[in-house]
Amino acid sequence: MSNRSLLAVTAAAALLGCIFAAVSTSDFMQHLDRQVHAIHCSFIPGAGKELGESGCKAVMMSPYSSYLRESVWGGVPVSLWALATFAFLFARAATLLWRSAESPPSRAETRFLFVATLLPVVMSVIYGFLSVTQVGQTCKVCVGIYVSSAAVCVAALLAHRSNESVDEPTPLSRYLPWFAQGVAFVVVLSLTYLIAAPKADPKKALSGCGALVSAEDPANVMLTLGSGEEPAIEVLDPLCPSCKAFDARLAASAFKRRLALKAVLFPLDPTCNWMVTEALHPGACAMSEALLCAAGLGATHDDDAALDVLRWAFKQQDKLRELAAKDEPAMRAKIEAQFPKVKGCLGSAQVKSKLTKSLRWAVSNAIPVLTPQLFVGNARLCDEDTDLGLEYTLAKMLSPKGKAARAAVKAPAPPRPAIVPVAPPPVAKPKPAALPFPTEPPAEEPAAPSDEAAQ
Question: What would the DSSP string read from start to end of 1-65?
Answer without folding.
Answer: --HHHHHHHHHHHHHHHHHHHHHHHHHHHHGGG-----EE-SSSTT--EE-S--HHHHHHTSTTS
